[in-house]
Design a protein that fits this description.
Elements lengths: L2 H26 L21 E3 L2 E2 L2 H8 L4 E9 L2 E10 L2 E6 L2 E7 L3 E2 L6 H4 L9 E4 L3 E5 L5 E7 L2 E8 L7
Antiparallel strand pairs: 1-2, 3-4, 4-5, 5-6, 6-11, 7-11, 8-9, 9-10, 10-11
């Protein structure tokens, strides 16, 4: 076989292998490989707070992104018999909760209008997957495994309130 054909064959095999590997990773864990092309319906893209596929941003990275917070609170969150130190960086009605210098939860304390319940996740850059679990009580809407660990909000009369975006199981189930 000529050297040129061998090089061409090796390149083709590498490309095919890379595609197979990439597709298998996305199929095994699709929420980690969401498109960064954010829909025009997104009002607050919560996926921007991932530093890598397995880690959220640190406090210093959040400050780099958003500037100095209005306020910082330090408190302890108790879960079962454990206590977790939490630092909350507050930006207006947005509260960013950190434990071990990793973002654990964003709480939004303002009313946000919405038109259609089916578009709520999209408003935050999230979506439903095969392994997503949706609970809708007609006053609260919760989805797990939707690009973040857990998304929860209360809703009524076309407004979302008390929005919680959790990146881990620390604050919930």
């Amino acid at each position: 076989m000529k050297k040129g054909k061998l090089v061409f064959l090796v390149i083709i095999l590498m490309i095919v292998g890379g595609l197979v590997f990439g597709i298998s990773r996305v199929m095994n864990d699709p929420e980690k490989y969401q498109s960064s092309n954010v829909s025009s319906n997104v009002m607050f893209d919560v996926t921007q707070f991932y530093a890598s596929e397995n880690a959220t941003v640190s406090e210093s990275k959040l400050i780099e992104m958003l500037g100095d917070p209005d306020e910082i609170e330090e408190w302890n969150y108790k879960k079962s018999s454990k206590s977790y130190p939490i630092r909350t960086l507050i930006y207006g009605n947005y509260r960013y909760n950190f434990n071990s210098d990793m973002l654990q939860r964003i709480s939004i304390e303002e009313e946000i209008p919405y038109e259609n319940k089916d578009e709520i996740l999209e408003m935050f850059g999230l979506k439903k997957y095969k392994n997503s679990d949706v609970t809708d009580t007609n006053s609260a809407y919760r989805v797990t495994n939707c690009g973040v660990h857990d998304f929860w909000t209360q809703y009524s009369e076309g407004k979302l309130t008390n929005i919680r975006i959790s990146y881990s199981s620390l604050f919930g189930n």
